[in-house]
Amino acid sequence: MIALGSLFKRQEPALLGLDISSSSVKLVELSRDKSGKLTLEHCAIEPLERGWITDGNVENFDEVAEAVRRVVKKSGTHTKHVAMALPASAVITKKIILPGGLSEAELEIQVESEANQYIPFSLDEVSLDFCVLGPSAMSVGDVEVLIAASRKEKVQDRQGLAEAAGLKPVVIDVESYASRLATARLIEGFSDGGRDTLVALFEIGALTTSMQVIKNGDVLYERDQAFGGAQLTQLIVRQYGFSPEEAEIKKRSGELPEDYSTSVLKPFVDTLAQEISRALQFFFTSTPHNNIDYVMLAGGSSALPGLTAAVTLQTAFACLTADPFDGMTIGNNVKDKKMRREAASYLTSCGLAMRRFLQ
What we know:
The chain is an alpha/beta fold. The protein is 36% helix and 29% strand. The protein has three domains: 16-89 and 153-184 and 327-357, ATPase, nucleotide binding domain (Nucleotidyltransferase, domain 5); 91-151, Dna Ligase, domain 1, CATH 3.30.1490.300; 190-321, Nucleotidyltransferase, domain 5 (2-Layer Sandwich), CATH 3.30.420. It has helices spanning 61-75, 104-118, 152-164, 175-187, 230-240, 244-253, 260-286, 307-315, 336-342, 347-354, and strands at 16-20, 24-32, 38-47, 53-54, 57-58, 81-86, 91-99, 126-135, 142-151, 168-174, 198-204, 209-215, 218-225, 294-298, 318-321, 329-330. Helix 1 (61-75) packs across helix 3 (152-164), helix 4 packs across helix 10 (347-354) and helix 5 packs antiparallel against helix 7. Keywords: Cell cycle, Cell division.
């Protein structure tokens, strides 16, 4: 079997969730008490300069590795094992049906045989893994298996970044799977445990906004849009003549001219709400569904003032910001006020940290 440990490996020891996006590195470490309640032990964010990570590819390895070292130091953690993720665009996934009752070795042989049909590369060039999802709903006695594969160099880049920072990568996941895991915990907090609740999750990144429509843990629809928080930075540059670096720093710190809220922020928020509404319309016209229960927003720009209200107004659906730490105990090492301000940015890294507790 050609694999990095496992794309779906389950870990019991202390584990960091490390999310490397185009704009920042996010770290989360969780623990759990005897009752099963989660505790946020450590978290930190370190910004990345534009161009260091492009389309999920590591363009400036040394600079990103140094940022990983900084985020580990900033968090105060001493844990070395780390779960990381690749963007969905870098991973080929396919659900297949295999006979039940096969041994692990027999499953590996079958998966490799099946993978040749779906992966447009030689198996020598990929990291390949699989996960048995459970009995097949369509075929009695068979099991549903999820195959995941990625080019080896993509996996090795993530491994190398961790190792350069003195960490040991033990899980390589898929970003959308990790964010979905953290979101599922929040949905369980809805009435009736979130059963049959239809949630449209929008993760607003710097350059891309990704949408997943989730019901009972299943993804009904996925879509990416080339729209994100970097466009707000560009508007600030045009409006005030700052350099892109200055604009990004001032956007994060809030040190902007008095007319910023009305001249720049509100028009951007309204446009973002329209983009979300447009994405929902694509979902409705592409599926039998014509409504949802909640819009959930995550990512660095999701906490912009007025955004949830603008989305509700634009879509007529209830909108909330995803706080992956909602209901958790907050450890002594966490700066509570700063964490609350940035919470929605941690959705994927929180999902990666939760891999520790999967049985």
